[in-house]
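Weekly structure sync, notes
Attendees: PL (lead), two postdocs, one rotation student
Agenda item 3: pending single-chain targets
PL asked that the sequence for the first pending target be pasted directly into the notes so everyone works from the same version. It is reproduced below exactly as submitted, 205 residues in total.
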Amino acid sequence: MIKRALLIIFCISLTYGVYAQGKVELTPLFGFNFNGKVESFTSTFKVSDDISYGALLTYNMSDYAAVEFSYKRSNNTVREYYYPTGTTYRFDIGIEHYQLGFQHILKSGDVQPFAGISLGTSRYFRKDNKNDVWAFSGAIGGGVKYFFSEHIGIRFHSNLIMPMVFGGSGFFCGVGSGGGGCGATASFYIPTIHWENSLGLVFKI
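Predicted structure, written out during the meeting:
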């Protein structure tokens, strides 16, 4: 999955680079995510804070506006407290975010502060079985880019990533070490917020 996503980003960047030299930025990312709790009818899921990694593909439409595709991944541990029995379970999950958004660049030049908003989807999957959950998600945030030269720079940003699901007492796909189904009801809510802080090396094509 990761290799396919990065390959797609690379191919798209080459295509844009042919027709729009200097307007495309490819940014590998490394960062740290702060995660919260997810409450269901029968359990509380505590998601570990952990490192994240991924890549960004940014197309600058002008000096002050850009569109951006992002892929981000983290490997986390979940501790589930199951109310009916008072039992605590532990299992490993992967979290992936696919986002397409708009970036407003506040100042052009070597130093570029920016703000952004994006929409997409987030995938949560347990590593001990094949169950996963896809959720519609959105993100808001901002950061700054600094260019050492015409083609290379660094970027720091901070985002709040918000998955949005309909129902979902099975948000993490099951209770207990064996897992279970991924249920959903008619209610709509934000089960948790991921606070992402990342640093990346920007390559302008």
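Discussion points:
- Residues 2-19 form the longest helix (18 residues).
- The helical segments are 2-19.
Action: rotation student to compare against the earlier draft before next sync.
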